[in-house]
Amino acid sequence: MRADRLLSIMILLQNHEMMTTKELARKLEVSERTILRDMDALSISGVPVAADRGKTGGWRLMDHFKSYLSGLKLEDTKALFLLPSEQMMKDLGVNTGLDIRQKLLASLPDSSKSEARHYMDKVYMDTGTWKPSEDKNKALLTIQKALWEDTKLTIDYQKTDGTHSQRVICPLGLVAKGSSWYLIAMNDEGDYRNFKVSRIMKAEVTAEEFTRPARFDLAEYWKQSKLNFAESLPTLEVKVLAHSSIIGRLTLTDRFVEKIDEHLPVEDEMVSLTLSFNTEQEAVEYVLGYGGAMKLVQPEYLIEKVVQQAKAVIAMYE
């Protein structure tokens, strides 16, 4: 829309002080003739734009034309520049067009603008994975509609074992964890539940409204829920010997490696490690995944399970 483009031109000029017609056209993906018409429109509407001729010339806003974002300290403005990833914004249907950080920057007083730009140029938030997921969270837009209108949802939810269940829930909030979305909802009994959005196969908004709990705090609930989940997970410590050539791969993430026993003597380039798992099966599969480069030492009873599963794999290929 033209109004959006005119606003974008004002923001760009305020941030860059002076830009040529060609630079504005390239930035806004329009023709130079369109930019010239837009400048006429801004001038007619009372926006004090001026054109400086010559090789170093261009369009600029008159010095007295400034807007301010008042009441914010520099530390507050820094926090505003730490925005969610672009993908998260798109998932929520938020299309800001011109980078919203540029708009914030244009609103700052000159005394803070240079410091804020310095911060913006050096920090970028990306919550996605290295390899984009094919999961498009198809139910997310339907969930948002029910969330904004405080209406109940009927969902078809796929459990971790592959089975499905149909439920009627009251949506209370969405949480972005890494690159995944979680829906926090309440059932008719008043109990809170967490649902991974990618496992909601189908969602339909009902005509029935509900009353949102007055004291429900989404951020506080999620922090406590995450803490309770972590504490409920069983912990299984496993000692292994790993070949020095795979140590880099093992320590690429800290998900399983709890401790590297560097003080212990190394034999045949094997390093002693302490790993932590939630289940025995998880430990067995992890050890087998490294073949001869990893040997299970403790607990001893788990060695037999590793051997049995290894034999089952061999038998499958014989």
Summarize it:
With 318 residues, this protein is of the alpha+beta class.
Notes on the protein architecture:
This protein is of the alpha+beta class and 318 residues long. It contains twelve helices and eleven strands. It has a five-stranded antiparallel β-sheet with strand order 6-5-4-3-7, sandwiched between helices. The chain has a four-stranded antiparallel β-sheet with strand order 9-10-8-11. A two-stranded antiparallel sheet has the order 1-2. Helix 1 (2-16) crosses helix 6, helix 2 (21-28) packs across helix 3 and helix 11 (280-289) packs across helix 12 (301-317). It is extended. It starts with a helix and ends with a helix. 15% of the residues are buried. The model has no long low-confidence stretch (mean pLDDT 80).
- The best one-word shape is extended
Q: What is the N-to-C succession of helices and strands?
A: HHHEEHHHHHEEEEEHEHEEHEH
Low-confidence stretches: none
Tell me the β content.
15-25%
Largest sheet strand order: 6-5-4-3-7
Number of helices: 12
Average pLDDT for all residues: 80
Using DSSP, what is the number of strands?
11
Structural class: alpha+beta
Distance between the termini: 66 Å
CA-atom Rg in angstroms: 28 Å
Biggest sheet layout: 5 strands, antiparallel
Helix content: 25-40%
